[in-house]
Amino acid sequence: MDNGEERAPELRTLRQKVEYMVEKTFPGRKISGRVFADLVKERGGSLSHSYFSNILAGKVTQPSEDILKALGLGFGVDWRFFKEESEVVDDVVAGLQFLAKRRTGEISGLAGRGLDEDGLPPELLQFALALLKDAEVRQPPAGGGPRGQ
After folding, report:
1. How many angstroms separate the CA atoms of 54 and 27, rounded?
2. Distances from the Cα of 8 to the Cαs of 12, 15, 27, 61, in angstroms?
3. 96 or 147: whose pLDDT is higher?
4. What's the rounded Cα separation, in Å, for the pair 40 and 42?
5. Is the dihedral of CA 114, 116, 122, 124 positive or negative?
6. Do the beta carbons of residue 112 and residue 122 sit within 8 Å?
7. How high is the pLDDT of residue 14?
8. SS3 (DSSP) at 84
9. 3-state class of 146 per DSSP?
10. Residue 148 has pLDDT above 60, yes or no
11. Among 94, 141, 101, 85, CA closest to 115
């Protein structure tokens, strides 16, 4: 029995993600590789129509970051959506570890390796700062304080 809820699709592979975005971005339309490649070009990116078709055919599974950025341009979404889940998780964990070390003083300077020209996305920074704030609230102050009150 259908309760009216739309079930979230499984979006693990690049092909699944691109098919999902085609469906959501161009509902009811079949978009050719050439049309999509032209759209990417109009938005300042570069992606060949045959490469896009190969992604939809499942022949491409690990494209370069430039290809992911072109897909993001074409669909109007953050290119990181197309990264493998494990890579995104690794990025988030690395960012949180960095912020925790920066906060505790283990890191006093910074060299921007691994970040793009925009730096850390504001949403991730806000999330990380909220986590750190929660952790501070849960820990008793150094030197002890009144207990059981």
Report:
1. 21
2. 12, 16, 17, 22
3. 96
4. 5
5. negative
6. no
7. 92
8. coil
9. coil
10. no
11. 94
C-beta of residue 50 within 8 angstroms of C-beta of residue 91:
no
As given in the structure block, the two tokens for residue 91 are 């990025």
Buried b (16+ CB within 10 A) or exposed e, 91-126: beeebeebbeeeeeeeeeeeeeeeeeeeebeeebee
Q: Write out the two tokens for 136.
A: 């501070």
Residue 70, pLDDT above cutoff 90: yes
In the chain, DSSP finds a helix count (H) and a strand count (E) of 6, 0
* Rounded distance between C-alpha atoms, residue 44 and residue 70, angstroms: 9
Is residue 122 within 8 A of residue 90, CB to CB? The reply is: no
Rg of the chain (C-alpha set): 21
Tell me what the mean pLDDT of segment 116-145 comes to: 62
Joined together, the tokens standing for residue 73 give: 């341009």
Q: How many CA atoms within 13 Å lie on the side-chain side of 82?
A: 28
Q: What is the dihedral of CA 84, 85, 86, 92, to 10 degrees?
A: 120
Q: How far is CA 139 from CA 32, 54, 144, in A?
A: 56, 52, 10
Q: Are 37 and 47 in contact (CB under 8 A)?
A: yes
Nearest residue to 69 via CA among 89, 33, 44, 92: 44
